[in-house]
Amino acid sequence: MPKAGSWRDDLRVLWLLARGRDRRAPHAAALNAFYAPQANVYDRFREQLLPGREPLMRALPLCPGLRVLDLGAGTGRHWEYVAGELSGLARLELVDLCAPLLEVARRRFADRANVCCTEQDATTVVPTEPVDLVVLSYSLSMMPDWRGVLDNAWRALRPGGCLAIVDFYTLPRTPPSGFAPLSGWDRWFWPRWFRHDGVWLRPDTVAALHGLGGRTLRQRQGRDRVPYLAGLKAPWFFWIREKPPV
Ligand SMILES: C[S@@+](CC[C@H](N)C(=O)[O-])C[C@H]1O[C@@H](n2cnc3c(N)ncnc32)[C@H](O)[C@@H]1O
Fold first, then answer.
1. Which of 14, 144, 208, 222 would you label with 178, given CA atoms 20 to 30 Å apart?
2. What is the C-alpha radius of gyration for the chain, rounded to an integer number of angstroms?
3. Mean pLDDT across the stretch 181-191?
4. Residue 108 Cβ contacting ligand 1 at under 6 Å
5. What would the pLDDT profile of 218-233 be if each residue is shown by its tens digit?
């Protein structure tokens, strides 16, 4: 059941989404300005807006002893879908450029010694040792240098490690192999709708993911309602790719 006050919280988020992101400000400053006024109600609204997170998190190849890097982790709420697995991880590093969202993550995981929060750019962050899993949950589409982030994520993985991504997406008219096509309406409407809030759906993202090499372990295309957007369903995908073992 929605909590009391939830309408007011939703209205605040809707107002910030309608106002959009400041495109002239430097990236970190724009993220802070956009998220700071909604950091404490972020999770409630994104519960409805980011539906692919739960199936991705439940599909992750998690097991005790793994080192995990999450790029653009925000409040880290998606890790609660697999809360039972967290204590077994050797290390979970949540990286984000946005201090107010990361502060929520710090409070959330304050009692977990194996979870750490790092305020840094996903393009340049380097883990202290190669990791077993890198996760990008609805964050790649908000990163200006998204190819740099993909390269950095792939470099951070040990051979045989996995890259897991869930995000809104678009495709070229002829989709890459293994992907069902999107309609002309989807390809026209959703990139325009999301970019107002600094979310960039790029038709070449899926091809770039294939270009990394390795082997696809899981892939899924889904579509879900967007809150307060009368009956419209936004396309999302998830994708888990294994880096070749040497
Ligand atoms: C839509 S939110 C998703 C947050 C979280 N992963 C989730 O699933 O709820 C996108 C996140 O990416 C972060 N982000 C955007 N660009 C970034 C960058 N270059 N480096 C690190 N984080 C970034 C934002 O601050 C924000 O927390």
1. 144
2. 17
3. 97
4. no
5. 999 999 988 777 789 9
Ligand 1 atom 8: residue of nearest CA? 137
User: Ligand 1, residues 79, 96, 147: which to mutate, most atoms within 8 A of Cβ?
Assistant: 96
Q: Is 137 in the pocket of ligand 1 (CB under 6 A)?
A: yes
Question: Whose C-alpha lies nearest to ligand 1, atom 24?
Answer: 72
Residue 153 banded pLDDT, cuts 50, 70, 90:
very high
Q: What is the mean pLDDT of the chain?
A: 91
pLDDT at residue number 25 = 79
Q: Is the CB of 51 under 6 A from ligand 1?
A: no
pTM of the model: 0.92
Of all atoms in ligand 1, which is nearest to the CA of residue 98?
Answer: 25
Neighbours of 186 (CB within 10 A): 18
Residue 166 pLDDT exceeds 60: yes
Architecture of domain 50-242: 3-Layer(aba) Sandwich (3.40)
Ligand 1: nearest atom to the Cα of 166: 8
